[in-house]
Each structure stands twice: as C-alpha cells, then as structure tokens.
Amino acid sequence: MKINRRNAFTLIELLVVIAIIAILAAILFPVFASARAKARQTACMSNMKQLGLAVIQYIQDYDETYPGGIDLNCSPATPCGYGGVAFTTTNNTPPGTGWAGQVYPYVKSLGAFLCPEDELTQNQMPAWAWMASNWLVPISYGYNSNLALMNSLPVNGSKITSSPMTVMFFEVQQAMACPQQTANLDWFSPAGDFSYLEQGGELGGWNTGTQAIVAAPIGALGGQCTRYQVMARHSQNTGSNFAMADGHVKFLPGMLVSGGTTAANSSADQTWGGATVNCPAGLALGNAAQLQWAGGNAAGSQFGGTSAKTGGPIAATFSPI
Fold it and tell me: Which residues contact 172 (CB under 8 A, 6 or more apart)?
C-alpha cells in the first residue's frame, strides 16, 4: 500500500526559523542604524566643509577680512562688525550674527546650512518663520563671533596664530536664518562663544518667552555647569563636528573644545572668574533662562598639554590668538 506524505514544516521548526530571524534582526538593525547615523555625520561634515571654504573665498575677496555679520538692527551706514559699534545683547547687534547672508553667494545652496541629523530644528520651527515674507529656513551651524570682531575692528586672517586649532563653525539647534536675502538683511544666523551665552543674545534663534533658545554642543570653561555637553549630535551623542579656520572639519567631544572670548596670548590656558549660580538640576533645552554663566577667556590657539581648568587636553579653541 502506497502512503502519500506531504512535505511541511512542523510548528517547532517554524518557531526555530522565526527565532533565528529575530536574532539576526536584533544584531543587524543597530548596525544599519549606526551606518545611517554615520552617513548623516559625514554629510554634516561635508556641509561644514562647504561653509568653511565659502568663508575662505570670502576673505580672499575682502582683503583677508572675516565676515562680520549683518543684523536686523544694523544699517548700511553702520554694518555689524564694523565702525566700532558697541555690540551688546540690548541692541541685538552681536558680532558675526547674520554671517549666512554674506557667505551664501559662495555656497548657493540652502542645503549646506542644515545638518541631516538636526531633526529638532527641522521639526520645531515656529509657524511664523515659514511665512513668505520671512524667507526663514532652519540652520544647524553657528559662527565663531571671535572671528568677526577683535578690539572693535574686523578680524584679519593674519591675526590668527593657529588656524587648524581655531573654531570657525560649530553645531547648534533651534536656529534659523535667511541666507538667500543677500541684497537685504540676513535673519538670525547665529554666532557666538561661551562668554555671552547666558545673555541669550549672540546665539539668536527663536524666542520662548523672553529668552532666545539655541543649544550649542560646544566646550565649557572650567567649573561651568552646562547643558551643552549633553547636546552633542553625532556618534551616539558623544560629540559634534567643528569646522576650523583653515577649512578642515573634525569630530570632537565638547570637553576638548575651549569656549570663550579671545585668550590673553596664544599659549594661555583658560582663565576663570566668578561663581556659577542657579544651575538647574535638569539641564533641559527649555531651561536656558535659568542658566547663569561666569565669565572667562578661551585657551590660546597654540596652547598645549593638559588644561588646569578642565583637567584634560584642549583640541580646539574659539580664540583666534
């Protein structure tokens, strides 16, 4: 008697196959996500490279002078960054702010101003920013304001003692700009360093209450409490991309970067003065108004060794000297 047998999987065999697929997925999916994040980081570095080269082309056309920025409250008679204008957060004319409009003719692409990993800025732009009359777009990069103005004068490239160590662009969140309005006034494109962040003026983004909110994953002066070290954007939030004054771009953890104003000399360590108060327990993005920062200078661009203030090395600085 001939017996017909059907070829089929048993329930146990099916469950084993499903389990193997699940294990492989659990192993491979994080690898795919990591590769995607790395690709975004690389695209971000490419953007910063384009911006850095644009600034280098700009200074070649303007007698080796770095962009000084243009701002809503500046005028053709007294453009921001020139003429000895008193830059304070009360008149909203900080040095460097509005740099995007100055370098846009050398880039000619709005995409270069946005990091693919900067989803917060893309998703939380205020509704009024999209109005046709405003021309505002999200922007992911801030400009080192120390390159815009020194002793009330425009910064000349010859003043920089170590361009590979000097930050030109750093990453920010919740900022916007209007780069394509080159014939008129640029909006907001942020510039700054750590010495003025408590005032909310130089890194102008969009207002929450009375405070301009912009998060910048840059370094800290020694002893400073900061939310900025946790705002790192790339490599599993371990650091951010920085474009240097010589045009090259590199990834750095925030604590390797010395923020602040111009150092006393090119080999100086970070100086520190005053006490930090009112630092909240949870340094959330919306708590900027609660943060208080003490003043201090950045390390010099030729500083070597271990910082006495941070206890670690310094790989980059916001000081041009």
Answer: 139, 140, 141, 142, 190, 203, 205, 214, 215, 216
In whole angstroms, give the CA distance from residue 240 to residue 251: 5
Go through 291-318 and write b for each residue having 16 or more CB atoms within 10 A of its CB, e for each that does not: bebbebbbbbbbbeeebebbeeebebbb
Measured distance CA(268)–CA(302) in Å, rounded: 8
Q: Quick check: 261 and 193 in contact, CB under 8 A?
A: yes
CA distance 277 to 40: 37
Residue 152 clears pLDDT 80, i.e. is over it: no
Separation CA 239–CA 76 (nearest Å): 39
Enter the tokens of residue 54.
Answer: 């644009």
Question: What is the C-alpha separation between 97 and 295, in angstroms, rounded?
Answer: 21
- Tell me, what's the pLDDT at 285? 41
Q: Is the pLDDT of residue 73 over 70?
A: no
Average pLDDT for the chain: 74
Q: Is 63 left (phi over 0), alpha (psi -120 to 50) or beta?
A: left
- In single-letter form, the type of residue at position 54 comes to A
Alpha-carbon distances of 228 from 143, 195, 282, rounded to whole Å = 16, 13, 12
Say how many residues make up the chain.
321
Which tens digits make up the pLDDT trace of 214-242?
A: 556 555 554 455 444 345 788 777 888 99
* Cα gap 170→211, rounded to integer Å: 21
Residues 262 and 70 sit within 8 Å (Cβ to Cβ): no
Backbone dihedral region for residue 84 (phi beyond 0: left; psi -120 to 50: alpha; all else: beta): left
Q: pLDDT confidence of 177, banded at 50, 70, 90? A: confident
